[in-house]
TrEMBL record:
GO terms for molecular function: hydrolase activity. Pfam families: Glyco_hydro_106. Gene3D superfamilies: Galactose-binding domain-like. This is Glycosyl hydrolases family 2, sugar binding domain. NCBIfam families: rhamnoside_JR. Keywords: Hydrolase, Membrane, Transmembrane, Transmembrane helix.
Length: 861
């Protein structure tokens, strides 16, 4: 039973009970029919398909436009939408629809009705833009900070307004620490939804971006209740910058209180309200001044974010050199795993991702860039992809339509829209397996957040926000990040665990550490200085029961909490001494973990990445090659599949794998080129293994092609014979501005030695950007991701006079050079309007033309 099915089953029982006890027969019949209609709707949409952010600019939508786009989404293989109202479009002011007003709710009802018809799901943000806030946020529940006046701490407003707000959503940002804020804020939604039976599947909270907020009216009282003393009695120590012991303990207490309040008063209250209204929740906790593991855990669907362009060493992979790594960082699995770890430890099946934000500049993203980023997300435990994103565009608008200020555009005006079904099918094939299996990680790594709070060098008054865009300070440069990175590079599979989560661990009968159905073999504590007393006591209890616990380097030296710290020193020292006799301390914890029998996939050192899953008693691997170190070879699996097979989610084909036993483990012979991915699993029946072929001579087809422009903008009638494969840029002045499809064609003979080969592959080499391929008039497929290769069906080739046609589609970037020269008025959006990847005003007219076409080399092998 899925999370959705479980929710609707419980909802059914509760509603039936309510109907039987509270309503007349007429009302009972009406509401029963209504419920079963809603229940049927909930079970129609497909969570294995990728969903998308759907920005409503000014909420200037129409029934016709909503239906049109939803039909386009369904046809492209998108499974659902996430409505985010944002700023509007100039010239459409009369169509602006105030958020949550009567007309807005009408459009929302139309959306859910049409989505149900098409088998799509609908989520929405609990607000507009981000963070939470708006017109109903008065000063008493608006974001606040403290101000020191003499020896007094005063409360003042930060003044931050909702960013990218939609009409009707403008106003101050919400106080994330106040117990009154969420209950008052959601009253507006209660009122709006009281007039309709339409409901979203999920409510959503975006990444925490409440800047400068570090206080709330009730903070002094909450601090005293939780920490045992009055913070205002120790203002000198609190504001001290010398980092002495007393000062550090007080500042850690302050941060812990902030963390408690954002967890209890924001996250938990929002989730509880959502559950009361029968919404599930998607939550981006990153950026918060709290422990992300605890925050992500409260949501039904923890959500991470893939922002920016990675630098995978895959041959021919397009990289946007204008992306500023120093400013925004790059997607990193160490950050992504906070969401998936929280899901695993709290028993949640789904982990989502805001996917491919600013992967490259506008009009410059190729699908061959998208797939590796998504593959990396899969290996980090994500299984519910949300594209970032698609902007609603009025039906009367033409290319390039309405655009959100941040790339990537996955919508109908995107240059890769024709190929979108290829991407969505691939993701669906992956997520069907990833969602129907449990993650098989056997190591827990403690996240020592108190060491961060103790070493904070941020300016006075700042709170430590765990921002996904700048992970150097709180992950990569910390012992925690260095240790986790080393573990992953050595093939260990792991989840992170917080202080609060350690308190809920229990030791199973076989010595496993258990929580919410997940089982682990050991806990690793990275080298850290501080350990909370409760965490120490939990570890001590588990160690005495026989849990395997290893401390890296040394045991922690200090406890947390300023209250009575002098009198608690002896107790801490005593319990640390007891712990020392029950745990392992090692400068080489990886060696200890290996000796304890934790699984280790040593083949990751070949540049492969993976996630290991359990489906019943069977072990399933998802493996992706995001490097240029491995092509094929023998690898040793920690778990031995019966009749091992390789399943390609790209082609939906399965084939048996050559295998052999070695030292009690199964060795498989794996072919996986850079850019490729696959599942390794057991087969219900023995498949003949793929033949290992060495040194087959390839047929080079790189010369003598005819190039013909087919369709695109501007319309071009042009044909040319070329000897060497090359970009069509430079053929003529007009081709430098062309966006569309160009056919490369040639005839060839098939050598006798290749006529006898049982499997032939067409390798297109470098393609800018995707290619539909025909051989002898028959379409054999579309090459849209790296490596650009397609299998040639048997008996399709003749000994001589074969016709090969490669219809290449490029990016729209070259055409935008012309659009911005002659018709730049398409940039007509309020707020930030449209910016480039450096957040400068967008202007494509100054770009150099980008290579386009079939660059090769082209071979058959």
């Amino acid at each position: 039973m899925t999370e959705q099915d479980s929710f609707w089953t419980n909802f059914t029982l509760n509603l039936i009970f309510l109907l039987l006890t509270s309503f007349s027969m007429r009302n009972l019949l009406f509401l029963s029919l209504l419920f079963f209609s809603v229940q049927a709707r909930s079970q129609q949409f497909n969570i294995a398909k990728p969903w998308t952010y759907w920005w409503w600019m000014g909420s200037a939508v129409s029934e016709k436009g909503i239906t049109r786009q939803l039909e386009q989404f369904a046809k492209a293989g998108i499974g659902g939408v996430h409505i985010i109202p944002i700023y509007g479009v100039k010239g459409y002011e009369k169509q602006f629809t105030p958020f949550l007003g009567k007309q807005w709710i009408h459009y929302f009802e139309h959306t859910t009705k049409e989505a149900r018809r098409l088998g799509l799901g609908v989520d929405m943000t609990t607000g507009t833009g981000w963070p939470f806030g708006g017109a109903n946020v008065s000063g008493d529940i608006a974001a606040k900070k403290w101000k020191l006046t003499g020896n007094k701490m005063e409360t003042v407003l930060t003044g931050q307004a909702v960013k990218r707000a939609a009409p009707g959503g403008e106003g101050l940002s919400l106080d994330p620490f106040s117990s009154k804020a969420i209950p008052k804020y959601v009253g507006r939604f209660d009122t709006a939804f009281s007039t309709t039976t339409a409901r979203p599947r999920a409510m959503y909270s975006d990444s925490y971006e409440v800047y400068g907020a570090n206080w709330t009216d009730e903070f002094p009282a909450e601090f005293k209740k939780r920490r045992g003393y009055d913070l205002t009695d120790f203002l000198k120590e609190f504001t001290d910058s010398t980092q002495n012991e007393r000062s550090r303990l007080i500042k850690m207490d302050y941060h812990q209180t902030i963390a408690d309040l954002v967890l209890e008063n924001f996250a938990e209250k929002w989730v509880n309200w959502s559950k009361k209204n029968h919404f599930i929740t998607r939550y981006q906790a990153h950026g918060s001044p709290g422990n992300l593991l605890d925050l992500y855990s409260v949501a039904d669907v923890p959500e991470t974010e893939s922002f920016g362009s990675s630098r995978f060493k895959i041959p021919f992979l397009r990289i946007d050199e204008d992306y500023e790594i120093e400013r925004f960082g790059i997607p990193n699995p160490l950050a992504m795993k906070f969401a998936s770890s929280a899901a695993n430890l709290s028993g949640k099946n789904l982990v989502s991702s805001e996917t491919c934000t600013w992967l490259a500049n506008h009009f410059k993203v190729s699908l061959s860039q998208v797939k590796p980023q998504i593959d990396e997300l899969f290996t980090a435990g994500i299984n519910h992809v949300f594209f970032h994103g698609i902007t609603y565009t009025a039906p009367e608008e033409t290319f390039p339509g309405w655009l959100f200020y941040a790339s990537t555009n996955f919508g109908p005006y995107s240059h890769f829209w024709k190929q979108m079904p290829e991407l969505t099918r691939y993701i669906k094939n992956c997520q069907e397996i990833l969602q129907s299996s449990k993650t098989d990680n056997d190591l827990l790594v403690y996240f020592p957040i108190n060491d961060l709070w103790a070493t904070s060098t941020k300016p006075l008054g700042s709170v430590y926000q765990l921002d996904i865009h700048s992970i150097n300070g709180w992950i990569l440069q910390q012992n925690f990040g260095k240790t986790c990175g080393s573990l992953l590079r050595k093939g260990f599979s792991l989840d992170y665990i917080s202080d609060l989560q350690i308190e809920h661990l229990r030791l199973g009968k076989k010595g496993t550490l258990e929580t919410k159905g997940q089982m682990y073999k050991a806990i690793l504590i990275p080298k850290c200085t501080f350990l909370p007393q409760k965490t120490l006591e939990s570890l001590l209890k588990l160690s005495k029961e026989g849990a395997k616990i290893v401390f890296e380097g040394a045991l922690p030296e200090k406890f947390t909490g300023f209250d009575s710290f002098e009198s608690r020193k002896n107790l801490f020292a005593e319990e640390i001494t007891q712990l020392a006799s029950n745990v392992t301390v090692s400068n080489n914890p990886l060696e200890i973990l290996s000796s304890w029998g934790l699984s280790q996939e040593v083949w990751v050192e070949k540049g492969l990445k993976f996630i290991r899953k359990k489906k019943g008693t069977q072990t399933v691997y998802f493996i992706t090659n995001l490097s240029n170190e491995f092509n094929e070879g023998w690898i040793d699996l920690s778990f031995s599949p019966e009749n091992p097979e390789k399943y390609s989610p790209l082609t939906q084909k399965s084939e048996g794998l050559p295998s052999q036993k070695s030292n009690g483990k199964t060795r498989i012979y794996l072919k996986l080129l850079p850019g490729e991915s696959c599942f390794i699993r057991s087969s219900s029946h023995k498949r003949p293994p793929e033949t290992i072929i060495a040194g087959t001579t390839a047929l080079d087809l790189s010369n003598d092609w005819n190039v013909t422009f087919l369709e695109g903008m501007p319309s071009i009638k042009y044909s040319k014979n070329i000897h060497d494969l090359s970009s069509w840029v430079g053929f003529a002045d007009s081709t430098d501005y062309f966006w569309g499809t160009v056919r490369y064609a040639k005839t060839f003979n098939l050598p006798e030695k290749l006529q006898k080969v049982s499997k032939l592959t067409l390798d297109l080499g470098n393609v800018k950007e995707s290619a539909l391929v025909k051989i002898n008039g028959k379409v054999i497929g579309t090459a849209w991701c790296l490596p650009f290769q397609l299998e040639i069906p048997l008996n399709l080739l003749k000994p001589s006079n074969n016709l090969l046609e490669v219809e290449v589609s490029n990016l729209s970037a070259n055409h935008m050079r012309l659009v911005d020269k002659v018709a730049p008025q398409w940039k007509k959006f309020y707020d930030i309007n449209i910016v480039d990847i450096k957040y400068k005003p967008f202007d494509a007219s100054k770009w150099q033309p980008m290579p386009s076409g079939l660059l090769g080399p082209v071979t058959i092998k």
